[in-house]
Amino acid sequence: MSLEQEPLWYAFVTRPRHEKKVKQYLDLTGIESFLPLQRSLHQWKDRRRWVEAPLFSCYIFSRIPYARRFDVLRAPSVARIVSFNNKPTPVHEQEIDAVKRVLAAPQKLQVVDGIPPGSRVRITSGPLAGLEGVLAEHRGSSYFMIHIEAIGKSILIDASENSLLDLDHPK
Fold it and tell me: What is the CATH number of domain 7-91?
């Protein structure tokens, strides 16, 4: 199978607050897609309600052969494919799997832009055991970070709730 026909994960930029509509459209057309959603409790003056919001605002992932990228780009509310040097950049399968595992685990998380400095670590126990990432400091706390390189976003998970093994400085 040629590289153009091999299905890979690509990130697409959507219009703001249109991620779920794009996901629905791609599902109806039979295109494999992944929209990571985070459930949170929202408080208004008169009520509280659980809301599912996209983990990465304005992004959706689709697993397609490179030759079919225009099928996704033609979808309503899709602005562009994430590219570097005018070449669409695939998202690594391991990064997509890591996001799926993180969302399935009952952990507090948040998304930040960029890559905070730190040591590479691996979680050694619990539901996220085996995941590798970076130990990061953010606002005075330690976090386990998974970076999605293609879109320049990182997921931070409270490091105090996990057993970590330092991969940069093994004992």
Answer: 3.30.70.940
